[in-house]
Amino acid sequence: MLGWIVALVTWFCLVVVLSLYYFERREKRELEKELTRFEGTSEYKLGKRVEDLERYIALFLKGKKQDTVFAATFESVGMDSIEDSLHAMIGRAEMEIILVTPWIKEGIWKRIRGSVLDFVKDGGDLRVFIKGTDEDFSSGRSDWSVVNEISQYGGVVKFVPKLHAKVYVVDKREALISSANLSRSGLDFGYEAGMWTCNPVIVKDVRGFVERLEYP
Fold this sequence. Notes:
This protein is of the alpha/beta class and 216 residues long. It contains eight helices and eight strands, in the order ααββαβαβααβββαβα. Helix content is 57%, strand content 17%. Strands 2-1-8-7-6-3-4-5 form an eight-stranded mixed sheet, with helices on both faces. β3, α4 and β4 form a beta-alpha-beta unit.
């Protein structure tokens, strides 16, 4: 009789333990499913980007000795190169990349497209401003293939026929103001110069200029 009681108690305890385990597992799966759904929302991504951006800005500005640096297309005299500065900016982008360049060529685009398109796939905002005239495309100054690829991946390309400025902006916190187009004549063959800055006053003014291009 005692053996039956022990067996019954053991069986009851086992049922309780298994039930608790089952309900705990089910609750965990539901929580994981809900977390996955929430992580996919734009609110979560925006909050995460803002959090990462605030942490990055604090570290970045703390370690940066200068808020403005001269850049050029040749490096032999100890200057930062325009292309290296642009690559570094794209690599630091968290929320937004703006490329203002009258002409954009596939050869140069291929050198930045990987990191730019990865940024867009992760939910980043890409806006590109070019002249976009028929003459630019027919003469080969700009390539339709680049425009099509940017649009295909969710970036926005705006045509500004009077455009002459070359400006590259990331996350409303740093900007590269340059004489170089995103073309081989701009970055490989010509002597071009510019200025990288994270000075908030200058970056704000640059952003104001970009907004005028977008909403003239």
